[in-house]
Each structure stands twice: as structure tokens, then as C-alpha cells.
Model the fold of this input.
Amino acid sequence: MQKYWASALFLLLLGVLNPAQAESEVWPEKQVPVDKPWTIEFSTSMDEEMLESNSYIGIRKEDGTFHPVERFISEATLRIEPKTFYESGEMYELVISPQLQSETSQVISTGVVQTFTAADGISEFEQRVVELTNVEREKYGLAPLELNEELSRVAEEKSRDMEENRYFAHQSPTYGSPFTMMNDFGFDYRFAGENIAAGQVTPEEVVNAWMNSEGHRENILTAAYEEIGIGYVDSDGAYVTYWTQMFYTAK
Done:
């Protein structure tokens, strides 16, 4: 599950000092999206074997086991991304041991226990697509689209339907056309539209693909649209990812 943007990442800055001074600090609880990534920046390069071990840094669940994560190490920076979404409503701890050491065997200045709860709602990937879409609209003097979380649930259901039924089309075998689907989910529209995509790894890739396609670009730059819903689904199928944008203006 790759996510490549900086603005959405929670940033920890940690220094190093001698072992006698090392201790842990408990930080206030946070509520985060179910796909929350974490970035930790140290003041020096750390022992990579320790960075790869849950014994020194990891996402601990309430039962004491660790959530599966991917780790990306670059000099003095570690990025941690969940391999699977956190369970909504469950509590987790980002744990950084005070015994974590630098390449020169210094321990970090303070360990960290960051408690967080995963919450349902739009994911950081989906939020980023909204931001990038509005950046494109701003270039043409258009008003930004307002994120509608209920519409995002419909868009996510469309992406999930494509993944589960192994198709890629605006016409769903389950819900019919995008316009029928919106109506059936309670969206009585004056203007409506849909963009779909599959296979793109990042929000930047998918918005760029849409902007380089005439029909999709037209949807993004339609002045009559006021609200937007975004649905992103990871898949083990042929396309790997499915994306849906739903555009909407109420009657």
C-alpha cells in the first residue's frame, strides 16, 4: 500500500544522547484515518536492523500484537505505512523504544508512545485526490469542490463493486449507471458526473491521468459542479487499485 505525499504525514523529530538519559514520553491520543502513515525523522542515521524490528519501533494493538507495516528507510528518516487498514474504532500505539540506537550506538533522546484511534471516513489518499482536483480547478478560476463524505461512501462502493465483480466501466452490473446509483443512494442531483480509473498507485498519478484525458478533464473543470465524493480501493486483482470520482450539484 504505497502512499507518497508529505503534507498528510505526522512528523516526529527525535534526537540522540547517551543511554543513561533515555526514557519514554507518552503523547496525547489522536484520531487518525484508517490508512494513516507515520514519518519519523531522527537527528542522525539510525541502526537499520533496529528500525526493521517491532522490538524497537512498531504499531502495537490492544492485544499486545503488532499491526503489519511496511518500513521505508532513507538516511535519518523512517516512514511507516500500514499494510492493511487499521480497524475503525480500535486503539493502537505507535511505540518507539528508548533503547533504539543510532549507527554509532547512541540511544534516542526519548522514546515515544503515541496512542491513536482509527476512524471511519475519507482516507488520506482520498483527501489528497480532492486537494489535487481543487488545485486544477483553481488554475482555471473555478470554485473548489466541497467534499461530501456521504457521496464518498457511494464512490467507494462503486470502486469496491468494480474490484469485486472484476469490471472497469461506468455501467455497473450491480447499480446500473452512475446517475441511477446516485439517485438510489439518495442523491437527487441537478448536475452529476463520474470519473473512474484503475491501476494508478498514488493520488498524483490518478489526477494526472484524468487531467490528460479530455472527458475526465472536462468533469474536473466543470463549473456547475459543487460537491465531490472520492472512492479508492486496494485490490489483489489485475488492476491493483480502483478509483472513483463522483461530481454532484443538488437540485
Q: What stands out?
A: The chain has two domains: 10-119, 124-250.
